Structure formats: structure tokens, C-alpha cells
From TrEMBL, chains A, B:
Domain of life: Eukaryota
Coiled coil segments of this chain: none
GO CC annotation, single: membrane
Sorted UniProt keywords: Glycoprotein, Glycosidase, Hydrolase, Signal
Entry keyword Hydrolase: yes
Name of this protein: Beta-hexosaminidase
Record organism: Halteria grandinella
Catalyses which reaction(s): Hydrolysis of terminal non-reducing N-acetyl-D-hexosamine residues in N-acetyl-beta-D-hexosaminides
Stretch forming the signal peptide: 1-16
Enzyme class at the top of the EC tree: hydrolase
Domain Beta-hexosaminidase eukaryotic type N-terminal: 30-157
InterPro entries in alphabetical order: Beta_hexosaminidase_sua/sub, GH, Glyco_hydro_20_cat, Hex-like_dom2, HEX_eukaryotic_N
Active site per database record: E351
């Protein structure tokens, strides 16, 4: 009978554990997927004790490198030592030479700009070629950042392999030839360090993870209503009053370390001062307090709803009728200009609780004197003055703004960049209203990584449910904006419920889905390949001591082909239906 | 003007960091809340180098302790050393005596049973009294488990305090007098170790966390379709074939360690063999393979939907028409009987994919011969035989079963315990159908801790959304079953997306909400007090090196009174509305 028939086919393999038979993919699994990849069937062994890193830099015509060229070689060496040879090495005094013919890595930069990263995002060139054969590894890129992207690919290709009592590293599928470049120039990650403070070490590690997935922008939402952890040298009392505790402040030294670490990894740091809303923390300073509307400190009783955004913790709003408001902006943008070399600065502009303006009886007169008709126009007036204040300090700075369905009254000028956090379905409204702006897409219904855990009352939050790996993959900016008007996207992490302890398991590997999608050419999404990439990226992080979550069950991780084969080939439209039905 | 007025009140306090003014609760915050608590305003300092633990055991009449009484003192000493003095001690050879008058802890047990835990859950008595004054700590309990619950309370009361170069520990609010006992005898935690393997160290640490929140049952869903990590000594090839890898098996020694660690903490371990469904992993053994329906190993092509439960990984079903089916049960229950002293064994019985029975052409004849009319009755027939097989090996064993809306055709006998995992709203249907059973409540819409992260396709899962701390608090068994018919509840963790790396941050502190609710008298839920308990429990775990998540933002943690004061006093009914509106 049938059962018996099965049993017979069975006798021989009964003692094989399930995963003894599980087959690894017969090709390199890389996140993001390179544009062009050819590979072979050899395994290149690398002996870290006999591995030389050399680099050669040819400058772009007319440019002169501002740093010592040795810095570039040192940075590459550091990446190789820490990220590629991730388990270290054990080089004996008298080395017993190992079976490894890979003599080293040569990095060639052909059009380097004066700065490691060109001042403007759109002048960046992250393209690279990577070749790994049985004797050497070679990387060629136009700019420094391309070398770093190539190293990220190399690190994902390299696995620790213990052999004859010596640490070795193996690259399978050699010879490997990769020609690669990103689809979008802006692949960002936003972190809110105001609702909760993150240790410097967490930010440095997060930058390493971002680089591994080829993100290239860290949008640092450094202050907000809840706390002011930025060490404001121009007005130190703002920090002293607004920070949670003296320890929960990013010192000048720490900010410099974070910016330098990011630059080394080809990542731009975009600081944000969200204003005029979300500025309650400033009000703890006695000098600026009078310019903060809705500010309360010593709560005599309940916090009035008029002081909260959707029932959240109390907010504060900078009052445009006070000169001090712009003294503050001068102070903050002066510090930003000193510490953050990138030409992008985010000015916020979201969730201005207009009812707070009613608190100032003199505001009506002020508006009348300035021909400001309503609070919407008052905010437009303020944001224009904020931009002016920024560019008056450094004319090369570009202003970024939060944009969603509630801010379509806003007015922008050429060069302003809109970071859209509204619903994906309303993106087209925005691009109709502002046809001349450039955009970064951070739709809350796809890219808000903190969603799905409820609001502060443990009830449903506006952006629930949780954005699964597949939900993230299902959004593509090119479905909404074509051409170069879209700079790219960013995933956002608001930190009410995130901290040093759970950030990694909450974000990874799923957060890498955005970087994967935006780097690679848009292709029909193959569920098996996607899961293999998510699993491979999680293993990459685990190999380096970073905790992650899982996107599928263990059986499906090891049997992705069988687990998903029955599923109809997934296309974005299909996913849209699925989520339309489930939200 | 108003702004200026505010500024004036301000000049003095501008340099105070926000949390310098945050007030800690002026009373002991304990999770769960003790039934009766009185406290004072002194601080009792404890010097771990001068702290004696003594215990005195008076046996229940007619009982004789099966273990050396010294074991009880040793267990108490171990709890004090590891959990109360959580940062250790530094006792110099010649101690410079410290300003501490707390000379030690005396534990008095008045009605101890022969076993550390009485054989039957309902004979357990976890009540205790705890007194902490400036000179001594005393605990009195009827049984061993009461002492352990008291120690959990003491550990939450005790904070590390460094003083004059010596480690000391402080108990604030002394003198403290607590009289305490649980509302429900079964406060359980279920973990699935088949979809993903958990290290022994993870299970041991989880037991410590459970004890801290006064859980008292570990329901171990040890095997399932995906893998068979239980080391089956009676049929070792079942393990060899069904385990993921040789390393992902719980050895006999490890199971003994886990059971012993649990017993030491007053926690019962209830093993489960889910059958006849969810048994695919058994089919890898050539001997039992013929008794597993729907089993496929070498997938020639896609896994047929007929082999999956809701499109999940393939399942398997034990065929009642094979004698081998009951040989297997004898083997498994024999091993269970050897390794698990508790009298509760879970037989599963959920999600039997009946279409699999069609695979056996001989089954119709078998059913006819046994007067079995349909597949529902076939399953009833099998579960009865499974219970008989269990109790034939040990007549004292009680059978637990999964029960939900799909199993209301099931038939039970006195002593059978139903673990209900259906929707809360359908609990009353069940109790109408089975008025004579006892129940453990694990409603999937409140207590499934793995929900909210989507299914394996990254789409919505049946039990989404995420169960927030507040959702968990909003369920109370007494709203559905009164009296002793309800033994209690358990939270369930299915492990497709959980593993060693993310279990703690996914579960804690919110998972403790159930233990909190079921231990304490049912009271109107005070949001501020709940959040203070959740935050305190998270800090308890953090102090002991265990990572957690956050239930509210940092500002609300430190300003719970202001953060939640504007919120209408939360009652279960109110919460029901909220969730009805948001799901």
C-alpha cells in the first residue's frame, strides 16, 4: 500500500537529519542584488596573514584631495580587517604559509573629488566593479564611496573558514565579476534620538549595518518635544534644560565621531531641527521659554489636550513673532554648520499644533503687520525665514522638509527637498501641487519601522500594522514618480518604543528591504530570492555579533524553494491587493 | 504677557535636567501587585557579606519530604545569591562591617508536601507572608512554592546600592508587610521549540524571568511538524530523522536540567506531544513513516496545498488505523513519564488536516470495522486512545487538549483539561458544550505573543495585530468563567519568527501583564499604575542583564501621572470598545 511504498523508499536515509539534505543556493546571495554578476564554481581561499591592501587614487580634473591619500588606503584596510575578516586572524610569528593564492586587494579610484564624498548628493557616484579570482581581488570605482560599496559586497561574499589550524576566509563561486551601481542616489535611514536616547556605540554599529546594505544617508532626527540631546554650544542652557539627563547628551566629540564614522562608510549625515512644532524641549531654557507656545513644565494638573498632538506627550511650538525664535535658529544652524559637512539640513515643519498660537494675544497684531492672513500662512512665513536663516549662515545648504497631506499649504522654492511621510496613495497629489521639487519617499504606510506596536495607550497606532519585509518590498518610488525628480527613499524609526536594547532585532533584516529595492533595478519580485537575501543578510549580521529577527520560519529559511513555490509569483500589484484587503 | 510670565517663574530652574524633577513612585511598585501590602518610610540596608539564610520545614501531616531538607535552604540561598543580590558581593577577608542591621532571612514552611511541588496543580499553595524590617526579613508559607513567590517579591523590592566601598543592597519603604496569594492556580507560558530551536540557556533564563513574574507553569510545545528536537530514547531514529540538526536536540541531560531548574523555581513543566496532527517530523523515521499521512520528504515539485495548514509548511497526520501509531505514543509517553514529574501532559489535538486521511485507501474499511462514522469521529476515537495510552503508563496523568471553535466536535472525560486558544468571544460556546471540564484560557486574540508580525508571506497573519501590554491586561478569565472551573491562563509563543536572539525583547515586559492580572484580585485597571509596574519589571530584568522592549515612550515612563492623567480611567469594557473599533 501507499504508506508501505513510502517506507521502502526510505530505509536508506532515515538517519539523515532534516537539514543534512537542505541545499544552499548554488549562486552568491547578495543584498542588494548587483546589477551585473557573473560567477564560477571555484572557492578562493584568503589568508588574512598574507593579504595586502593597496589603493591608487586619480583625482577628478581640477580637484585636489583635501585629506592625505593614505587615509583612503587606511579606511579600506580598516573595512577589510573589521568587516571582511570578521572573526579576526591568528598570525604566528613564523607563519606556516597557507593554501591561499589570493595575494591581496587592489582598489583603484579614477575620478576622486576633493572631499571623500562630493558636497552634493547628486554629484555622488557609487558605481564600482569588483573582481574576485583565485589569485587576487580588484575593485575599480569612480569615487571613494564606490570602493566602500564594493567592500560591502566583498564582505557579504566572504565566509570564515577554519583550515589546517589557521584562520582563513573563503569566497565561493569564484571567479566573480560584478559591475554595479545604484538605481537611486538617496537611500536613507532616519532615527529619532529625542523620544529615547541611543548610546553613541549603538549609532556607530547602526552605521556599520547601514553600510553593509548600501544605505548612504543617515537622517538624524536628533531633537524633538520630548528631549534635546544635542549639545548646543551656542546656547548650552537649551541642552541643560531639555536633555533627559546629563548623560543623555551627544557631546561635540561624539557627534564628530559619528559624522566621521559615517563619512568613512560613504554615508551622509543629515541633521534635523524640526520646527516650529516639536520644539517643547527648548522651553526648559529660561531665555527661550517665552518664545515656545504651549509650553508647560510644572504640571499643576492634567496636560490639556490642546497641548498634545493626537493625545501624545505635550508638544511645543516656536512663536514666529519673537526675535528670539530666530536667535535660536541662528544658534542651532551655526552648530549644525560646524559639525555636519553635508549640504542637506532638515527643517522639519510637520505637525505644528496651530491652537498653540492662540496662547499669544499679541500674535494677531504681528500677523496683521506682516500681512499674514492665517496660521497656515504664518507657518509658511516662518519656514521661509528658517530657510533664509540657514542659507544666510551657509548659502550652499539645501533645506529638507517633512511633507504630508496636512502640509499641502506649504510653499517651497527651487532646491528645497520634500521628505514625504504621508500615505503612498497621496504622493501624486503632492507632486501635482509641487511639480518642481525633488523628493525623498518615506510613506508612513510602508516605511515607518516603528509601527505595529500600538500607541502609548497600548491601543492601535495611526500607522499600524507592523511593516513586514514583504510590505516594505512592495513599495517602489518609480510607481509614483519617474525620472530624477525622486532622489530615493528613507525608512524612519521613531523611538517611543525603540531603544539600545531592541533596535537591531526590530529593524533587521527587514529594514534592508528598502535599500535592496532602491539599489537594484526594478524587477518582478521573486519571493524565494527575496527570502534568501533577507536570511543571508541576517546571517551576515549574526556572524558579526549583531542580533536580528527572522522573516520566516526556520523550515522555510532552509527550504525556501518548497516553502514558497506554491505561492503565485508575487508582483507589486498583487501585494497591493493583499494589503488593501488586510488593513 | 503670558510668555514673559512663564519665563519669570523659570529663572531659577533652567539648569535642572528634565528628569532631575521626575518623581519616582512613593510606594513599592511590584509586579504582580500583592493582595495586602503595608509599608513605611525607612530604608533597610543589607550587607550580603553578613546575611544568613535559614529555613524551617514543618511537614503536612502524614507526608515525609522526599528530598533532604537542606535542599530547600540551598535553593533559597541560591535565589537570594543570584536574584536578590544581583550584582554580587565583594566580601573582604577581614570584613569592615557595614551599616546594616538586616542580619538575615528566615523562611518558615508550615505544611510542606512530600514533593517540593504537590503532584496536582490544585493541591498547590503559593500563599506567603513577607516581612522586611530594619533588622530582619522573614517569610512564612504553607508550601515551598510560597517561599519562592515571596523571594520573587523580595528580589523586586531590593535595589543595589553602593556604599562606603562595599556592595550593599537597599529595600526602601521598610517596614514592609505583605500577605499574598494568587487568584488563579495556573499561570502559564507556552513555548514552541519545533519551528525554531531554543538553546538550553535561553530556556533556563526564561524560567528565571517567569519566576520573577510569578508564573508557575511552563507548557513545553517541544515537537511539531517542522522538527522533532526531543531526544526520544525509546525510538531514537525519530529524533535523528526529525531534528533539524544533531545540535538542535534537547538531550536527556538538558531536559532534566530544565525540569529541575523549573521545580526549584516552583514552576511545573507540562510537556506536549501534539497529535494526531502536527506530526510530520515523525515521518522521517523509516519505521513510523508509513503511519504518517501527508508526509513528503523529497519534494518532486511544489508542496500541494492539501499538505499544508493554511498555506503553511507541510503538515503530517498520524493514521489511527496503524498499530505503529500507538507504539509511537507508548514510546513518547514513556519518555515523558520518565522525564516530566508533573501529572499534566498535553496531547494537542488541534489542526488535524482531515484531507490527509484520504491518502489511505484502507481507512474506510478500518472506520467501518470500528463503527466510526466520519473523520471527526475518527479523531475523537484517536484522542480517546491517546488518553488511554497515556494513563495506561501512569494512571495519575491528566490529559490537556487544545480546544477552539474547530474542535467543538471533540469528546472529553472528567479530569481532561481544555486549553482554549480560540477567540475570547467564543469561550462561552465552549463552556456550554463542555460544562464539566476545567479550563486554561489562551485566547488567540489576547494571549498569542507571536502575533503582529505577519505570516510567512509577509502578509497579515490570522492573529494579527500585535498584542500590546494593554490588550493583554484587558482580558480577564472571570469575565467568561466563574469559580474554580477556570484554572487560569497561559500566554503562547509560536516560534516561526522567534528565536534565542529576539525572544526577550519580544516578550518582556508585556508578557508579564498576564501573570500580573491573574495573580492579583481583579481591580479597575489604573493606567498609571500598570505602566509603572511594566516599567519596573523591565528595569528588574535590565538590572539582571536581560534585554527588554518599552511599553511607552521615555517621557511617559518618567511622567506616567501626567502622560496618562488626561486619559479616562480605563476599564475592561472601555478597552473592549477600543479594540473592537481598531481591529
Amino acid at each position: 500500500m501507499l504508506g508501505l511504498g513510502l517506507a521502502l523508499t526510505f530505509m536508506t536515509s532515515a538517519l539523515a537529519y532534516q537539514f543534512d539534505n537542505a541545499k544552499d543556493p548554488a549562486y552568491p546571495v547578495l543584498l542588494p542584488t548587483p546589477r551585473n554578476l557573473t560567477f564560477g564554481s571555484q572557492t578562493a581561499l584568503i589568508d588574512p596573514c598574507f593579504f595586502a591592501v593597496t589603493s591608487n587614487v586619480t583625482m577628478k580634473e581640477g580637484d585636489t584631495l583635501k585629506v592625505d591619500p593614505k587615509v583612503i588606503t587606511a579606511n579600506i584596510q580598516e573595512y577589510v580587517t573589521n568587516k571582511v575578516f570578521y572573526k579576526g586572524s591568528d598570525c604566528p610569528a613564523t607563519a606556516n604559509y597557507l593554501a591561499s593564492n589570493v595575494v591581496g586587494l587592489t582598489a583603484e579610484i579614477t575620478h576622486q573629488t576633493a572631499d571623500l564624498l562630493p558636497p552634493d548628493l547628486e554629484d555622488g557616484d557609487e558605481s564600482y566593479t569588483l573582481q574576485v579570482n583565485s589569485s587576487a581581488i580588484s575593485i575599480v570605482a569612480n569615487q571613494y564611496s564606490g570602493i566602500i560599496r564594493a567592500l560591502a559586497t566583498l564582505a557579504q561574499l566572504t565566509k570564515y573558514s577554519y583550515s589546517t589550524g589557521r584562520f582563513t576566509y573563503a569566497v565561493k563561486f569564484a571567479p566573480i565579476n560584478i559591475t554595479d551601481s545604484p538605481r537611486y542616489p538617496y537611500r536613507g535611514f532616519m532615527l529619532d534620538t529625542s523620544r529615547r536616547f541611543f548610546q553613541e556605540s549603538t549609532l556607530l554599529q547602526t552605521l556599520d549595518i547601514l553600510a553593509a546594505a548600501k544605505f548612504n544617508v543617515f537622517h538624524w532626527h536628533i531633537v524633538d518635544d520630548d528631549s534635546f540631546p544635542f549639545n548646543l554650544t551656542t546656547y548650552p542652557n537649551v541642552t541643560k534644560g531639555g536633555a533627559f539627563t546629563p548623560e543623555q547628551v551627544y557631546s561635540v566629540e561624539q557627534v564628530k565621531n559619528i559624522v566621521a564614522h559615517a563619512e568613512k562608510l560613504g554615508i551622509r549625515v543629515v541633521p534635523e531641527f524640526d520646527n516650529p512644532g516639536h520644539t517643547r524641549a527648548v522651553g526648559f531654557d529660561s531665555y527661550f521659554n517665552e518664545a515656545i507656545r504651549c509650553f508647560m513644565k510644572d504640571w499643576s494638573n492634567n496636560v490639556p489636550d490642546a497641548y498634545r498632538i493626537n493625545g501624545g506627550p505635550p508638544t511645543g511650538v516656536l512663536d514666529p513673532s519673537f526675535d528670539k525664535t530666530y536667535e535660536l535658529l541662528v544658534g542651532i544652524f551655526t552648530d549644525f554648520n560646524t559639525l555636519f559637512p553635508d549640504n542637506m539640513v532638515h527643517l522639519g515643519g510637520d505637525e505644528v499644533l496651530q491652537s498653540c498660537f492662540n496662547e499669544n494675544p499679541n500674535l494677531a497684531k504681528f500677523m496683521e503687520d506682516n500681512n499674514i492672513t492665517d496660521y497656515d500662512q504664518l507657518i509658511v512665513w516662518h519656514m521661509a525665514k528658517a530657510r533664509y536663516t540657514l542659507q544666510n549662515i551657509n548659502r550652499d545648504k539645501k533645506a529638507l522638509y517633512w511633507s504630508n497631506e496636512d502640509t499641502f499649504y506649504q510653499e517651497y522654492k527651487d532646491g528645497d527637498i520634500l521628505v514625504y511621510w504621508g500615505l503612498a496613495q497621496n504622493i501624486t497629489n503632492m507632486t501635482d501641487i509641487y511639480p518642481n521639487q525633488k523628493y525623498v519617499m518615506a510613506p508612513g504606510d510602508y516605511y515607518y519601522m516603528d509601527c505595529g506596536f500600538g500607541n502609548k495607550y497600548g491601543e492601535k497606532a495611526w500607522c499600524d500594522p507592523f511593516k513586514t519585509w514583504w510590505k516594505i518590498y512592495s513599495f517602489d518610488p518609480s510607481d509614483y514618480i519617474t525620472g530624477t525628480q525622486c532622489l530615493g527613499s528613507e525608512i524612519a524609526v521613531w523611538s517611543e518604543l525603540n531603544g539600545d536594547q531592541n533596535l537591531n532585532v526590530k529593524l533587521w533584516p527587514r529594514g534592508a528591504a528598502m535599500a535592496d529595492k532602491l539599489w537594484s533595478d526594478k524587477v518582478p519580485t521573486d519571493l524565494v530570492a527575496i527570502v534568501q537575501r533577507q536570511v543571508a543578510f541576517a546571517e551576515y549580521l549574526n556572524d558579526r555579533g549583531i542580533a536580528t529577527s527572522s522573516v520566516v520560519g526556520r523550515w522555510c529559511e532552509k527550504n525556501a524553494d518548497h516553502c514558497f513555490a506554491a505561492y503565485p509569483e508575487a508582483k507589486a500589484e498583487k501585494v497591493e491587493e493583499l494589503f488593501a484587503a488586510t488593513e
